[in-house]
Amino acid sequence: MSDEADHSAERQMQFLFALRSRGVTEARVLSAMERIDRGRFVRGHFAGRAYEDMPLPIACGQTISQPSVVGLMTQALRLSPRDKVLEVGTGSGYQAAILSQLARRVYTVDRHRHLVREAAAIFAELDLANIIALTADGSFGLPEQAPFDRILVTAAAEDPPGPLLAQLRIGGIMVLPVGQSDTVQQLIRVTRHETGYEYDELRPVRFVPLVEGLGRDG
Ligand code: SAH
């Protein structure tokens, strides 16, 4: 093996080890995270840190989430291969790329057009043809594609947005951080039953805020 191949195999092993040690244990989630190279989604100054388990800055003042949090949120969604998923908060596109490996179709929206364009270009390069990336205010969901089997929100709202609850199919699951943006938030799972919604608290997390309206570049 060349030195470089050796180095990247070692890096990959450490990346997967960190995920496992933080509770990402589902084989199919781990294998999706093995297939999708996080290094493709981090540019510039921080590119060299793409394989560390930490959030990193991306364009438009946003962040790519910590890999273990991406893994835990993906596990919490309990995806099936037939699911139609909505992600609110495309950011770098990394989380959407992971979801694309485990679901039938992924709609991902961000309020920053620039982020959506960059992410869509990476999806095309990686041939991830089941992701549709759109510029939109995701706090209103995506009514024209509703209902969704799964919804993942990767920005924090104070409460689960009503339109997202309404766009969840009966039997569907939504995972999202709730709480104020400058404090520790709770990751929660909302399951929609015929008779109402069930809420589970999963763990404390920190996300950038869900902001209404399009970004200035949007
Ligand atoms: N899932 C991303 C990380 C998301 S960071 C990744 O894997 O890299 C949160 C993202 O939510 C930011 O890009 C921000 O622009 C977006 N966001 C915040 N409020 C939003 C809203 N109302 N609608 C859509 N996107 C929003």
- Name every ligand kind in the structure: S-adenosyl-L-homocysteine
The total strand number stands at 9
Strand content range: 25-35%
| Count of all domains | 1
* Overall mean confidence score, pLDDT: 95
Total helices: the number is 6
> Spatial order of the strands in the main sheet?
5-4-3-6-7-8-9
Q: What structural class results from the helix and strand content?
A: alpha/beta
Unreliable runs: none
Task: State the end-to-end distance.
Answer: 46 Å
CATH homologous superfamily?
Vaccinia Virus protein VP39
CATH architecture: 3-Layer(aba) Sandwich
How would you spell out the order of helices and strands? HHEEHEHEHEEHEEE
Shape: globular
**Roughly how many Å is the radius of gyration?**
17 Å
How much helical structure, as a percent, in the residues? 25-40%
CATH fold field value: Rossmann fold
Largest sheet: 7 strands, mixed
Protein name: Protein-L-isoaspartate O-methyltransferase
Subcellular location: Cytoplasm
Active site: 65
EC number: 2.1.1.77
